[in-house]
Structure formats: structure tokens, C-alpha cells
Design goal:
It contains 18 helices and no strands. It is mainly α. It has a single domain, classed as Up-down Bundle (Amino acid/polyamine transporter I). The longest helix is centred in the middle third of the chain and has 36 residues.
Length: 437
């Protein structure tokens, strides 16, 4: 059975992150924050959180090398019920929701760039069509799947770099945005608005852990997984800071407030109507790699759940090339359901909250695993332990608390999904097919 290449999995990590979040979040952040320094600080803090999480996940992935991400980790560290609840979250929200958001953003960018004021159902149809096409590709062979992913990810990084340089080059009079610290920034940084905005940023960085979902399909995962996680996250952090600096530098803030397609708006401000439409169309194409990457990584959670629970064994079935085609079809169907039934911002906050909580429990697991299994072979140990995971835990917990207070409905819905997963686990007669090794 073929394996994914190092470059393919690195591309999956980068493409999972660079997508909906960075091309949409700034519009929502500007509703409450107008300081350029604070806005860039959000993305820097989000990068530190993601890097801290990636270094911690690298230890867990090297010590517990099996596909499935948090499902695998939490099953081994805590209890199968906790692992199932995490896998339930990943299957129902963690990948299906973000895949839907990326496809919806693709449709919004594409129609805006073409100058069309599309009917909402036309946008939904375009988003669903993209998911169907990518599902067919990724359910075929690893060669097709990996080749498509690497090509679109290389294109994505190259276009972002060119876009940033070109936008700064052509703008004669940059926007008068303050990027240095001022005393009035203190109240913003310690506010609930900063914490809620940080959940948008955390969502944008979601995907730094994507390689752990493919560990079992990666050559020598104990050696390569840590490098993939940290390299992918570091590259994305630099891209995010550059993109948001350019957005703020070339576009009036008022033009982006509350808007989804801030990348297109920035392109229009920098290059004019025709150039902006072309750049917006190109940016929309970049979102294809995001949808693609999530269609690769997410179904592996369903596959591993199917391997462990006989009643869900259909999810573990693979084609001749070892691709979990049924699991891919199931996740894509859930994404299409999100597109047809939900609004953009509600899915964004809801998904961001529940994914941050899922990762919080997983990062905490590095302490639990070291206490319970001190002699377990650890080819890689978290750099800066215990400070690194504590940075992740403290900042993420702070963010979750403020989101729970300020966006209670979405937060409670997220907790409800977890509870439903635990109830489902309790109701399923469990006769594991194999141990989670």
C-alpha cells in the first residue's frame, strides 16, 4: 500500500490553515478593534499558540504514531469514551464545518471577483459543487490526491507572497494605520473583544495539527511528524502576519468592517476594479486547496473510529489503493449539510470554540501521558516543556472563557455536540475490532 510523501503531508498542514480564516476574519475583528498594532498582535499571539500546540502534538504524535489525531491521542491517554467524543467532534464539526466554510468563502470570492451579485442559493450550489468534485478526486488514489494537494498548496503560497509584494508596491498612499503600541491598546488587549477576535484567529490557525490525522500513512512518522508540524505552522504564521499587514495598509478599515471577502476588497483597493477582480478570482482559487486538504485529513478520523468500533466498521473500508472512500463521502455529505442549513458567522464561532476546546484537552494530555507512562519511548520531546504547553493551555483557556461569556449560544451548542458524542458512545455496543496501537 502506498504512503503519503513528506511534501504532501506538509502541504496538507499549510493548506488546512491558510484559507477561510485569514481571508475573512479581519472583517469581523474590525467591528470592535481599530488598532493596527492590536490586530497584528492577534495574529502573532495566535501563531504562538499554534506553534506551542504543534510542538506538543509533535511529542504525542511521535509517541503514539497512529492516524486519527485527537481521537487516537485521547483514547490512549484518557479513556475510549473521551477519544470517541473527540472523534465525534472532528467528524461532525471539526472538519465538516471548516470544509463548508472554505467552500462558502470560495463561492463568495469567485462571484464577487466576477462582478456577480449572486443569489444565496447560487452560492450554496457553487460551494457544494466544489466539495463534490474534490470528493471524487480524493476518493480515488493517493497519487491523484497527493498530486492535487501539493500543486494547489505551492500555488497558494506563491500567490500570497506575490499579492503582498504587488499590493504594497502599487499603492502610492498607504492607509494611516498605527502599528506601534499605544497606552489605549491596553484596554483592548484585556477586553472580551480581543478574546472573541482571538477565537477567529485560532480558527484561522486550525489545521496545524492536520499531520497527526495521517500519521499511519506517513513514512517514518516518529521522525518526520515533528518537523512537518512545526515547519508548516511557522510558514503559515509568517504568511498571516504579512497578509493582514497588507490588508490594513492598502484598504480603508471602514470598507472591510463586517465583510467576508476582505481579500477581494483589499485587491480592489490596491489594483482597481479590473485588477481587483482578477486578484480576487485568483484568491478564490486558493481556497480550493483548503477544501481539498480537509477532505484528505478529516475522513481519517472516521476511518480509525470504524476500525475500533465494529458497528461503524463501514467507515473503515478502503479502496484498492487504501483510500477510505466511504469516510470521505460521509464527511463531504456533512459539509454539504452545513452549507445548506447554516449561516457563515455562526458556523465560524461554533467551530472555532469546539475545536479550541478539543485541542486544549489534547495538549493537557502531554502532562497526563508523562505521569502515567514515563517509560514510553518518546522520539521527540516538546521543546521548552513544560512552558510551551502551558502557554497554549493558558491562552486557549482564557479565550474560551471569554467566548463562553460573550457568545454563549454558540458555545453551549459546541458543548452540546460533545455531550451528544458521549451519549452516542454509551449507546453503541462496543466490541473493538483492534486495539488502538
Amino acid at each position: 500500500m502506498s504512503k503519503f510523501k513528506y511534501s504532501t503531508v506538509t502541504a496538507v498542514v499549510i493548506a488546512n490553515m491558510v484559507g477561510t480564516g485569514v481571508f475573512t476574519s479581519l472583517g469581523f475583528q474590525l467591528l470592535d478593534i481599530r488598532s493596527g498594532f492590536v490586530l497584528l498582535l492577534l495574529w502573532a499571539v495566535g501563531g504562538v499558540i499554534a506553534l506551542s500546540g504543534a510542538m506538543t502534538y509533535a511529542e504525542l504524535g511521535a509517541a503514539l504514531p497512529r492516524s486519527g489525531g485527537e481521537y487516537n491521542f485521547l483514547t490512549r491517554i484518557y479513556h475510549p469514551a473521551v477519544g470517541f467524543a473527540s472523534g465525534w467532534v472532528s467528524a461532525t464539526v471539526g472538519f465538516a464545518g471548516p470544509t463548508a466554510l472554505a467552500a462558502m468563502t470560495f463561492a463568495a470570492y469567485a462571484t464577487s471577483a466576477l462582478g456577480e451579485d449572486a443569489n444565496p442559493w447560487v452560492l450554496k450550489a457553487i460551494a457544494c459543487g466544489l466539495i463534490v468534485v474534490l470528493t471524487l478526486v480524493h476518493a480515488s488514489t493517493r497519487r491523484n490526491s497527493g498530486g492535487l494537494q501539493v500543486a494547489f498548496t505551492v500555488l497558494k503560497v506563491g500567490v500570497i507572497v506575490v499579492f503582498c509584494i504587488a499590493a504594497l508596491w502599487v499603492v502610492d498612499t498607504p492607509q494611516p494605520v498605527r502599528f506601534v503600541f499605544a497606552t489605549e491598546d491596553v484596554s483592548l488587549i484585556t477586553s472580551g473583544a480581543f478574546a472573541v477576535s482571538l477565537i477567529y484567529v485560532s480558527y484561522a490557525y486550525t489545521g496545524w495539527n492536520a499531520a497527526t490525522y495521517l500519521s499511519g500513512e506517513l513514512d517514518d512518522p516518529q521522525r518526520t511528524l515533528p518537523r512537518i508540524l512545526m515547519l508548516g505552522t511557522a510558514v503559515v504564521m509568517l504568511l498571516y502576519l504579512a497578509l493582514n499587514y497588507v490588508f490594513l495598509r492598502v484598504t480603508p478599515m471602514d470598507a472591510m468592517v463586517g465583510q467576508v471577502e476582505v481579500g477581494y476588497i483589499a485587491a480592489d483597493a490596491a489594483f482597481g476594479d479590473v485588477g481587483g477582480r482578477f486578484a480576487g478570482l485568483v484568491l478564490s482559487l486558493l481556497l480550493i486547496s483548503t477544501v481539498s486538504a480537509m477532505t484528505v485529513a478529516g475522513p481519517r478520523v472516521l476511518q480509525v473510529i470504524g476500525e475500533d468500533i465494529r458497528q461503524l466498521g463501514i467507515l473503515a473500508r478502503t479502496n484498492a489503493d487504501g483510500v477510505p472512500a466511504i469516510a470521505i463521502a460521509v464527511q463531504s455529505s456533512l459539509s454539504i449539510l452545513f452549507i445548506l442549513t447554516s449561516t457563515f458567522e455562526s458556523v465560524l464561532v461554533f467551530s472555532g470554540f469546539i475545536l479550541a476546546l478539543n485541542s486544549l484537552v489534547t495538549v493537557l494530555g502531554v502532562f497526563v501521558l508523562r505521569i502515567r507512562q514515563p517509560d514510553l519511548p518518546r522520539p521527540y520531546r516538546t521543546f521548552g516543556y513544560p512552558v510551551t504547553p502551558l502557554i497554549y493551555l493558558s491562552l486557549t483557556a482564557w479565550t474560551l472563557w471569554f467566548v463562553l461569556i460573550n457568545r454563549t449560544i454558540e458555545s453551549l451548542l459546541g458543548l452540546g455536540v460533545i455531550l451528544l458524542g458521549l451519549i452516542t458512545y454509551a449507546l453503541i455496543p462496543r466490541r473493538p475490532v483492534k486495539d488502538a496501537e
